[in-house]
From TrEMBL:
Pfam families: ADH_N, ADH_zinc_N_2
Molecular function per GO: oxidoreductase activity
Residues of the Enoyl reductase (ER) domain: 27-352
Highest taxon listed in the record's lineage: Eukaryota
InterPro entries for this protein: ADH-like_N (IPR013154), ER (IPR020843), GroES-like_sf (IPR011032), NAD(P)-bd_dom_sf (IPR036291), YIM1/Zinc_Alcohol_DH_Fams (IPR050700)
Species name: Phanerochaete carnosa (strain HHB-10118-sp) (White-rot fungus)
SUPFAM superfamilies: GroES-like, NAD(P)-binding Rossmann-fold domains
GO cellular component: mitochondrion
Gene3D superfamilies recorded: Medium-chain alcohol dehydrogenases, catalytic domain, NAD(P)-binding Rossmann-like Domain
Protein name: Enoyl reductase (ER) domain-containing protein
């Protein structure tokens, strides 16, 4: 890529970045820095990426609201998921000008201050894969975190097999949408929860059975009409602590089945803290004290391994996992994008175009 194409930011070494400067909600914690430094100190194995689009994830605003500065090591650039063009291949086996997508994990962000809501970011080559020409930047931007999460849950931890039966709580979450597509690619039977307005969309992804979570508690609906055979795997992709869905699971989860939860984190409300404490008790309660005779596990916060990113990219490039985009915002409107994802009503990824000229 020529110097002209890198645009003024790289030439003058200054760029625009959404920077997390303090703990709080996005409107309090984030500042648009129009004079941030373009990274110039690439380590061996790192490349400089001209970011075209970034996508938001709940982990972004959750950590913004929870972690104190001394742990989060603020200021740092916001967000994790991105797609863009290699601006400096830095002697790696990649080439300047190649289109890629990838993910900046939480640990790397805390270590380097880098994120994805920025014009230029630096990442190790293990954190990116080549972008197929069939993907628009707005589609590729949000694949990383939700894709790695769904793959880790179903393939690596859940070990879902063809012919098995999967229950996804939260089929219309961005994680759930990828999980449904992966499960169908594996050949599993998939039951999901969603609100009725999402049923047609979820069935279009191949969902076999649908439970409307707004009608009655999900565990009650499953107890009333349990699947035959019972589920092999329950993947809870909503992210709150749904205690009865776990404690009642012997009615609809096989004895050797696994209840895998994406991320029940407490918020600062008393109700959420109490619920989290209740969940902690129930998942640790021994059987002889009336504990639930089913295994419960929580997914760890995602890191990146090159082979896992490449595995996900194969599903995407073969058309087995299609990106679903809820909305696309201008870079300057990132705070409105946060409002959208925090509404918890998005259907697919909330994307921020960093380069206004891309699709
Ligand atoms: N462990 C990790 O590394 C990791 C990685 C990624 C995500 N996560 C966690 O996974 C969770 C989901 O993230 P996401 O980005 O996929 O969320 P999201 O896309 O923002 O979720 C929004 C969707 O959730 C649906 N929804 C809301 N409440 C629901 C409920 N009670 N039951 C069923 N569906 C419900 C909404 O549908 P309606 O509008 O129809 O209600 C909406 O379509 C979050 O808690 C996130 O922190 C963890």
């Amino acid at each position: 890529m020529s110097a002209t194409k890198l645009n003024d930011a790289a030439i003058f070494h200054r760029q625009k970045a959404w920077v997390v400067v303090r703990r709080g909600k996005p409107r309090v914690a984030l500042v648009l820095d129009e004079n941030a430094a373009v990274p110039s100190d690439l380590a061996e194995g790192e490349v400089l990426i001209k970011v075209q689009a970034a996508a938001l994830n709940p982990v972004g605003y959750k950590l913004m609201g929870i972690l104190p500065n001394f742990i989060a090591k603020r200021p740092h650039v916001a967000e994790h998921d991105f797609t863009g063009i290699i601006a400096d291949a830095n002697g790696t086996d990649l080439a300047t000008g190649q289109a890629v997508w990838g993910f900046v994990p939480v640990g790397l962000k805390i270590g380097t201050g880098q994120g994805s809501l920025v014009q230029y970011t630096r990442v190790p080559t293990s954190h990116i894969v080549l972008r197929s020409p069939s993907l628009k930047p707005s589609e590729a931007a949000g694949l990383g975190l939700v894709g790695l999460t769904a793959c880790e849950a179903l393939v690596h931890i859940g070990k879902l097999e063809e012919g098995q039966s999967l229950f996804i709580n939260g089929g219309s979450t961005a994680v759930g949408i990828v999980a449904i597509q992966l499960a169908k690619a594996i050949g599993a039977k998939v039951t999901v929860t969603g609100s009725s307005k999402r049923e047609e969309f979820l069935r279009s992804l191949g969902v076999d059975a649908f439970v409307d979570y707004t009608k009655a508690p999900v565990y009650e609906q499953l107890e009333r009409d349990p699947p035959t055979p019972k589920f092999h795997l329950i993947f809870d992709a909503v992210g709150d602590a749904n205690v009865p869905l776990y404690t009642q699971s012997p009615a609809y989860l096989q004895p050797n089945g696994l209840y895998l939860a994406v991320a029940p984190w407490p918020t600062s409300t008393l109700g959420s803290i109490m619920n989290f404490a209740w969940l902690t008790w129930e998942v640790n309660r021994p059987l002889w004290l009336g504990g639930t005779p089913r295994q419960w596990r929580k997914l760890p916060v995602m890191t990146v391994k090159k082979e896992k990113l490449e595995e996900l990219a194969r599903y995407v490039d073969e058309g087995k996992v299609k990106p679903i985009v809820d909305s696309v915002f201008k870079f300057e409107d990132a705070l409105a994008a946060y409002d959208r994802i925090m509404s918890q009503r998005a259907l697919g990824k909330v994307v921020v175009k960093v380069d206004p000229e891309v699709d």
